Amino acid sequence: MKEIILIKYGEIILKGLNRGRFEDLLVRNIKKALPKECRADVRKSQAITYVEPAEGADVDEIISRLQKVFGIVFIARAGVFPKDMDVILKDGAEYLAPYMETVDTFKVEAKRSDKKFPFDSPAISREMGAATLRRCPHLKVNVTEPDTVVRVEIRDSEAYVYADVARVSGPGGMPTGSNGRATLLLSGGIDSPVAGYMMAKRGVELNAVHFFSPPYTSDLAKDKVIELGRILAGYTGKYSLYIVPFTEQQLAIRDNCPEEHLTLIMRRMMMMVAERLAKRSGSLALITGESLGQVASQTIHALGVTNEAVKDLPVFRPLVGMDKDEIVTLARKIGTFETSILPYEDCCTVFVPRHPTTKPTLDKLLESQSKIDMEYWVEKAVGEAEWIVLE
Amino acid sequence: MIYLDNSATTFPAPEVVREVAETMTLFPGNPSSRHRFGAEAAKKLAGCRERLAAVMGVLPEEVCFTSGGTESDNIAVLGGANIKKGRRIVTTAVEHPAVLECMKRLEGQGFEVLYLAPDPDGVVPLSAFREAINADTCLVSVMTVNNETGAIMPVDKLKPIMAKAAPRALLHTDAVQAFGHVPVHFARWGVDMASVSGHKLHGPRGVGALYVRKGTVLRTPVLGGGQEKGLRSGTENLPGIAGLALAAELMGRGAERAAELKARLMEGLLSISGAVHNGGANESPYILNVSFEGIRSEVMLNALNAAGVCVSSGSACAGAKSGGSHVLKAMGAMADSAVRFSLSRYNTAAEIDAAAAAARSAAEKWRR
């Protein structure tokens, strides 16, 4: 018997005339998520998208990859049957039996897109219900609150049978690329990968910027960031990571600017570098992992002062209203937490003022910043950035 | 790359690599099996035991093969502590975690453990042992050479003190950094147990040995099929054991050359302004620990790594923990700017000079 994987999507069907474009993007992303070695065909027909695993392909692996494709709401394994009512009933009930072992009650919902099929939807539902009861005598029908719904879909060339218990959730959201591109400021910490995930989930294609400060930060710290980027790439497909050497900039700030403003001047400089790299790579926004009040440099005053350094692009801060434990929960869910907590220095913690200001004012900060030639250091950093492709 | 992290691990000698592969191929049987393959493996095992015993200067039946220094330490410390003989255990504050963690467990079981502090040169003075060892002492465990500073402890002078104060107590030494590096005479010193490890001698990882003086009774924590006279159950790692025996033989008289290289390195490093030697005169010729004032250990380590020089801050076994080395803190040294250079017979004078030059330029560039 043949089995396929049905892809169900939510939000994108609301997009009216854009629907076709969103679907095409989703299909493209699914194809990218399932390279040749997965041995699965991705098809779209009659407004339904499905994946057809080759004989002997690893279906569980395929499903776990699909669970990372944004735009998919759920994924269902379904049996494929010829459009012969007797076969559908008998083999369909047989196919369902293992899934039905875990439930007590069910109902059947049938859909018939081929209106020439000799049975109408209520008749199919009735017959399939009876066949299922014959095969699984422990079941009872409950049309108002069933444990699971058995679905029969009669398509142009074949029929699908599956039960809702056999489906798993996708990540939801919108297909990557449906909302343009944005540049993530990726440190080695817990927050920034989560911020990247959240914006990617809304269809944003990512690229990322990482600042590193050898020898104050080690190669291991850089490897850790690359690993975090790779985990994110599992959701977004491949993207570019700019790696910006930042030691001299940090030393210039430390040697010339008032101590209580070190962190904020550094963050402003990072934003300026990121914005220029973003524009160069076609990004339409910046993404940071800032969360209001989490540390001294993320108070409402500090965010305002940092934000002022960005000239044109909007800055997305998807974590701004989240508590640390909510962020940690999400980091665990997307699989970045264990890597994030590896104990390597990151460049933000190399020179930390003993008494950082929590209520900075812009004019004082600009005065502190004027001790160095910001433009020179920003351009130098942009010029020395290297990039690698993550996948 | 210039490899000066030989206290973390040494690179295997090519002869050892061949010996391990050959033993794996030619002696596939289990030494406990009664058939021909088993007998051949048993014979090979016995030969290796004799050879290692000869290098250690002990009897073959006093050599117990283990999975490495940590397991040897565990068997010796957990197996040697005996509350019926006494509640007190005397050790030092600068032991390897393989000993210290065992001590923590024993404290939980009602033992009183005394952690003796070193002098600023890294050596625990004999007077401290005289004060600590009393009639209630059942075990004394002191490393021969400290893994971070190279300090040589007075293990050779402990048994006479114990003979008077605690005649039934056992003496264990973690000789992982000593065996093959500095002269050791376990039998003459009256040591009851001594731990050694293969991969510190250009041998394989995952193999070591515990010297157990004839007549010593241990309550081993490793239970199973009763191999190694019941002290270390588990099918013998014959390829590793063959590698260990050969590696021990090859160590030979490398110490003189190491001493020359160390003197050269010391001269190069200590002429850097702000550099301080963490240690004293009585040290392994293979280890040199230096603090560079104003530069955190990781910064020096990263800068040297970028310049192609591999070193450690403190001990590799504490690599993920922060807060600086327990050893250097106990000595009162600049623990958070300490860097350990550890040598091997494969290092050259040119490498030493290049490493010292790299350290100098890193120190000048990154000092705060």
Concise overview:
The complex is a heterodimer of chains A (391) and B (368). Chain A is α/β, with parallel strands linked by helices and 391 residues long.
> What coarse outline of chain A follows from CA principal-axis ratios?
elongated
Percent strand of chain B equals 5-15%
Tell me the greatest interface.
A-B, 8 and 12 residues
Main beta-sheet strand count, sense and barrel state of chain A: 9 strands, mixed
Mean pLDDT over all positions of chain B = 94
Structural class, from helix and strand content of chain A?
alpha/beta
CATH fold naming of the largest domain in chain A? Rossmann fold
CATH classification, class level of the largest domain in chain A = Alpha Beta
Q: Classify the beta-strand content of chain A into a percent band.
A: 15-25%
**Average pLDDT rating of chain A:** 91
CATH-wise, what's the superfamily of the largest domain in chain B?
A: Type I PLP-dependent aspartate aminotransferase-like (Major domain)
Q: What is the CATH class of the largest domain in chain B?
A: Alpha Beta
- Total discrete domains of chain B: 2
**What about the largest sheet of chain B?**
7 strands, mixed
How many independent structural domains of chain A? Answer: 2
**What is the fold named in CATH at topology level of the largest domain in chain B?**
Aspartate Aminotransferase, domain 2
Extended strand count of chain B:
12
What structural class is derived from the secondary structure elements of chain B? Answer: alpha/beta
Number of strands of chain A: 15
